[in-house]
Amino acid sequence: MIRKHFAGVAASALAMAVTAQAFAGTVTTDGADIVVKTKGGLEVATTDKEFSFKLGGRLQADYSQFDGLYTDNGNSADAAYFRRAFLELSGVLYTDWAYTISYDFSHNAGSSDDGYFDEASMAYNGFKPVSIKFGRFDPDFGLEKATSSKWVTAPERNAAYDLIDWANGHQNGLGLQASSTFADSFYASAGVFAKDNNDTDGDSVKQVNGRFVFAPMHDSGNVLHFGVNVASRDVSDTVFDARYRSRLGMRGVETLGGNDAGPNGNRPLLGGANNSPAGSYDTDTAFGLEAAFAMGPASIQGEYISRKTKADSDAFEDIKGHGFYVQGAYTITGESRGYKVGKFDAIKPQNKSIGAWEVFYRYDSMTVEDDNITTASATRDVGDAEAKVHNLGVNWYANEAVKISAAYVKAKADNVTNANGDDDGDGFVMRAQYVF
Predict the structure, then answer these.
(1) Can the peptide bond before residue 129 be classed as cis, meaning omega within 30 degrees of 0?
(2) Separation of alpha carbons 280 and 274, rounded Å
(3) CB 123 within 8 A of CB 98
(4) For residues 51 and 53, what is the distance between their CA atoms, to the nearest angstrom?
(5) Which residue among 133, 179, 220, 340 has the highest number of C-beta atoms inside a 10 angstrom radius?
(6) Which residues, including other chains, have CB under 8 Å from residue 203's CB and lie 6 or more apart?
């Protein structure tokens, strides 16, 4: 019989021996100490659930083509790249401890100096239902952000998130977060993060995040979801990136992990400036509301987001931005979107021959007010900048591991153009995804 306290070593040895994914059932040793699951990755666990080890990952290969506002000269460009190439390791130690390590081989996360980790964290779950998590991970903010990139509906999350990329995006510092799902219908989290940007004294920028969700209906195909989010960071005495800008749903204009549009890619600047001088601003605050409803194969969701960068000098004005999106989706083969309190989950095909087919439409809108802009430039007029994006697409869930997506994206802006004077653009993106 394999002794329980050797389970972690045995799990690691077994994982190293497996070189290919298999889709099989469950295998149990004679001593009933270890269970091995190979359906959708490799998972090894003791039957008492004291130790576990799971090896998985995701690969998302994108091809996109776009023109107009999406390029500097307005001519058509394309991009072929790995949006994500994650190898993920997670598990449980001594029942109450959990770990997650996710490394991004596409290099869209992290940096060469800090490592390309999408996540590297530990969690203590001994204070049930509260979980305390620490390490490197994305701050908690928003419904689409909480939903895994594997199972968000459109290839890219809503464009309004670009206004608050610091609030829920990758961070190379460390964070501490407490979260809980309780009474079946509630989720709450609160966290503090030390970012990799420093003030003039070398003190790291501190950020706090909070999220609260109420989901009185929380089963797949029967969802009613409401949420509120807040994030704030202290940017006083800090040289920081105060830009309000967006790729407008087209990642290929500027990305890592492969080919993009290069110097001709246009990521419109709606307000703010990079390397804002220390002492120019005081706090950067984001606020969000979220709602979703799903019944059977149909779902609708939306979020409202606002941001304010408060001036700390008479030489500067506050910068304000807000945006929202509304999205509708329908699975024409009848499957429902999975749901766990606080986030949507995978669609699992019922018919193994044809898979599951989903169609969707999303409308994104954002507005930025920056009174620091008093003179028009070649690409930015005086006054509020606005941008609107239409997303129309289809997803084919061939099976539980393979998903193929295609989407048409159309953007229109006011008071913002490319170098050629274009204020609108069209694009098309395809994604092939494999998860295990």
Answers:
(1) yes
(2) 12
(3) yes
(4) 7
(5) 133
(6) none
Q: What is the DSSP string of 74-117?
A: S--EEEEEEEEEEEEEEEEETTTEEEEEEEETT--SSBTTTB-E
CB-based burial label for 25 (10 Å; 0-12, 13-18, 19+): exposed
Query: Rounded distance, CA 241 to CA 238, Å?
Result: 10
Q: How far apart are CA 143 and CA 324, in angstroms?
A: 12
Q: Is the pLDDT of residue 2 over 60?
A: no
Euclidean distance between the first and the last CA atom of the chain, given in angstroms as a whole number: 30
A 10 A CB-CB count for 357 gives 19
- Report which residue type is found at 218: H
Among the residue ranges 71-75, 122-126, 147-151, 192-196, the one predicted with the least confidence is 192-196
**Ramachandran category for residue 135: left, alpha or beta (phi over 0 → left; psi -120 to 50 → alpha):** left
Give the mean pLDDT of 275-297: 96
Greater confidence (219 vs 19) lies with: 219
Quick: pLDDT tens for 287-316. Answer: 999 999 999 999 999 999 999 999 999 999
Tally the C-alpha atoms within 13 A of residue 297's C-alpha that lie toward its C-beta.
14
Contact call for residues 295 and 143 (beta carbons, < 8 A)? no
Pick the closest to residue 160 from 172, 142, 148, 147 (CA basis).
142
pLDDT tens column, 183-215 = 999 999 999 999 878 888 888 899 999 999 999
Is residue 183 within 8 Å of residue 160, measured between CB atoms? no
338 secondary structure, DSSP code: P
Q: Are 264 and 253 in contact (CB under 8 A)?
A: no
CA dist., res. 90 & res. 133, Å (int) = 14
Angle among Cα 384, 386, 391 to the nearest 5 degrees reads 170
Contact yes or no for 153/327 (Cβ under 8 A): yes
| Tokens encoding 40 | 């959708």
Verdict on whether the full-model pTM lies above 0.85: yes
The yes-or-no verdict on residue 44 having pLDDT over 80 is yes
Please state, as a whole number, how many other Cβ atoms lie within 10 Å of the Cβ of residue 171.
22
**Distance of alpha carbon 121 from alpha carbon 133, whole angstroms:** 7
| 5 vs 180: CA distance, rounded Å | 29
Beta bridge partners of 429: 64, 407
Selection from 9, 179, 8, 172 nearest residue 94 by Cα: 8
Q: Is the CB of residue 416 less than 8 Å from the CB of residue 269?
A: yes
